[in-house]
């Protein structure tokens, strides 16, 4: 695993640089490996430029998000292909994006659960999903289905207005029996999204997701929930609050989703409120940057060397140099927060906002997984005198996550197309070394 940027510290990771006095020579020097698991509605994002006549032909209302049946979807897709109207065709899904980005960043294994067409034709949208996903993402556990996966069409007219046409296909037919208890129990984290709870009819995705959460809770594996959309949370905020409180350890959201579930428009106050339910909160807030919040035991807190920041919680970043801990592992829990403005002020031109939050979450997961990886291979390290959830401080994680989000914003794809460089001229030493 590698982290970007220049660092004087050599603890990323000192697995291969062991003290010769304590490095016991054994016949088996292979490093233990770990992985994370994500569950998603397998979907392909298709972007094309169309006119009003095209929208009228397929009964689509301009600027709206609508669900289409399979026959209409197949006709629309064929029309786009036959007339070379497709600009971009990406593998999508918020958790699919996160797993891909995690594997690109860490150069390590992640496991994606969901459904996939059992017969994949070259050039089809199912083929696009597989071919556009990192080879480090383990797709061996996908459940085969006799039918299409999900497709989301983004149709852009002459004025730039976006009309969304969604065909769910069989993406919500993941069965509970397709969830392996051992796979979940031995993972470093289980990642799900709120979309998995939005099913109907013969769909079994919700039952499968809840079964995976049950396995993770029983094995003390951190459950990470990405809220995904404010509209879903607004339908029943109380249900989501109870679900998060009872089953989730890490909550990822943007400021709108934070307002929907907590009632606080201020992202810092929303993150603070969410700490009543979970151990760690990731809140992206567009041009404001990113807020992270968690807990630290009072005896392990580290005070920042940065200027203390004003806000709705005065001097909220005072202990941002602390590593995150689960509240139940703290004798005297103290809430800790950090904030980082967008990397380099954000890009000059944003090509695509889709996937920026998924990239940030992948960076946080990389750090959490790195902590497990290091603990497995160097259990006697002084790093593990504290039973921390993360390897790095909140301050460092926030910088890393912002850097990853920037990389997604400057490209059309919602997924990272390459890893971050280890050294960058644009990164000041002060950005990473504090």
Question: Can you summarize this structure?
Answer:
With 434 residues, the chain is of the alpha/beta class. The protein has helices at 52-57, 70-82, 94-106, 125-131, 181-185, 205-218, 230-234, 237-247, 255-262, 267-274, 356-377, 394-409, 429-433; strands spanning 36-39, 43-49, 65-67, 86-91, 110-113, 115-117, 137-138, 143-145, 150-156, 162-167, 190-193, 223-226, 250-254, 280-284, 290-297, 333-340. Helix content is 31%, strand content 18%.
Largest sheet: number of strands, sense, barrel closure: 9 strands, mixed
- Tell me the CATH architecture: 3-Layer(aba) Sandwich
- What spatial order of strands do you see in the largest sheet? 7-5-1-11-12-13-14-15-16
Helix content: 25-40%
Strand proportion, as a percent range, falls in 15-25%
Helices and strands, in order, run as: EEHEHEHEEHEEEEHEHEHHEHHEEEHHH
Total number of distinct structural domains:
1
- The pLDDT mean sits at 86
Number of helices: 13
**Count of distinct strands:** 16
CATH class reads Alpha Beta
Radius of gyration: 22 Å
The CATH topology is UDP-N-acetylmuramoyl-L-alanine:D-glutamate ligase
Structural class: alpha/beta
What are the segments in which pLDDT stays under 50 over at least 5 consecutive residues? 3-10
Ends apart, CA distance between termini: 21 Å
């Amino acid at each position: 695993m590698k982290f970007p940027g220049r660092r004087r510290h050599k603890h990323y990771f000192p697995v291969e640089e062991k003290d010769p006095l304590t490095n016991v020579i054994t016949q088996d020097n292979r490093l233990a490996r770990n992985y994370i698991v994500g569950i998603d509605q397998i979907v392909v994002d298709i972007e094309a430029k169309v006119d009003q006549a095209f929208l009228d032909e397929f009964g689509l209302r301009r600027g709206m998000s609508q669900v289409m049946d399979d026959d209409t979807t197949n006709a629309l897709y064929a029309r786009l292909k036959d007339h070379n109207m497709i600009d971009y065709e990406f593998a999508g899904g918020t958790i699919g994006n996160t797993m891909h980005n995690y594997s690109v960043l860490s150069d390590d294994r992640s496991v994606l659960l969901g459904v996939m067409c059992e017969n994949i034709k070259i050039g089809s949208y199912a083929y696009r999903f597989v071919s556009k996903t990192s080879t480090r993402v383990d797709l061996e556990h996908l459940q085969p289905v006799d039918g299409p996966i999900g497709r989301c069409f983004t149709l852009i007219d002459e004025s730039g207005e976006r009309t969304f046409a969604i065909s769910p296909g069989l993406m919500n037919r993941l069965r509970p029996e397709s969830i392996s208890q051992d796979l979940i129990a031995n993972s470093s984290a289980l990642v799900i999204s709120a979309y998995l709870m939005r099913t109907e009819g013969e769909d079994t995705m919700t039952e499968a997701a809840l079964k995976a959460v049950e396995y993770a809770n029983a094995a003390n594996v951190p459950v990470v929930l990405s809220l995904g959309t404010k509209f879903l949370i607004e339908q029943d905020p109380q249900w989501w609050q109870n679900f998060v409180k009872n089953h989730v350890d890490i909550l990822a959201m943007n400021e709108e989703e934070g307002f929907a579930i907590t009632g606080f428009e201020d992202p810092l106050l929303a993150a603070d409120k969410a700490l009543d339910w979970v151990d760690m909160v990731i809140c992206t807030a567009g041009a404001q940057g990113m807020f992270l919040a968690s807990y630290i035991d009072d005896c392990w807190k580290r005070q920042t060397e940065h200027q203390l920041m004003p806000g709705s919680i005065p001097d909220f970043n005072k202990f941002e140099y602390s590593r995150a801990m689960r509240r139940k592992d703290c004798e005297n829990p103290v809430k800790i927060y950090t904030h980082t403005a967008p990397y380099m002020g954000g890009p000059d031109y944003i090509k695509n906002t889709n996937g920026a939050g998924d990239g940030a979450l992948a960076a946080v997961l990389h750090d959490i997984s790195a902590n497990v990886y290091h603990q497995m291979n160097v259990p006697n390290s002084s790093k593990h005198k504290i039973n921390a959830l993360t390897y790095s401080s909140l301050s460092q994680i926030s910088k890393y996550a912002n850097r990853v989000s920037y990389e997604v914003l400057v490209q059309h794809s919602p997924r990272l197309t390459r890893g971050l460089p280890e050294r960058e001229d644009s990164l000041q030493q002060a950005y990473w070394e504090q």
